[in-house]
Amino acid sequence: MTRGKQKIDAQKRNQEKNQPAKGSQLEHRAAAFKIQCNICMAMLTHENQVNQHYESKHPGKPINPKMVQ
Ligand SMILES: [Zn+2]
Predict the structure, then answer these.
(1) Which ranges carry the C2H2-type domain (predicted)?
(2) Structural domain tally of the chain?
(3) How far is the CA of 16 from the centre of ligand 1 (A)?
């Protein structure tokens, strides 16, 4: 029953993405966050990489990455 909510979340995220970045370049750069594995602390740069990483390195573990900037 989470599909509807996921869709809304995705729409929201898209809206945020499409909004013009206000403020400085610094903010713009901050948007390019990095993702860190909470288990082995590997740095991942893309959401797809996160799933792949957890599947190959920590199969069966919950996907719970940390966001770092
Ligand atoms: Zn890891």
Answers:
(1) 37-58
(2) 1
(3) 29
Name the residue range of residue 66's domain.
Answer: 29-69
Specify if 42 maps to a domain: yes
pTM of full prediction above 0.90: no
DSSP string, 3-69: HHHHHHHHHHHHHHHHSPPPS-HHHHHHTS-EEE-TTT--EE-SHHHHHHHHHHHSTTS---PEEE-
How far apart are the CA of 42 and the centre of ligand 1, in A? 5
pLDDT band (50, 70, 90) for residue 41: very high
Is residue 21, in this structure, part of any structural domain at all?
no
Spacing, Cα 64 to ligand 1 middle (Å): 10
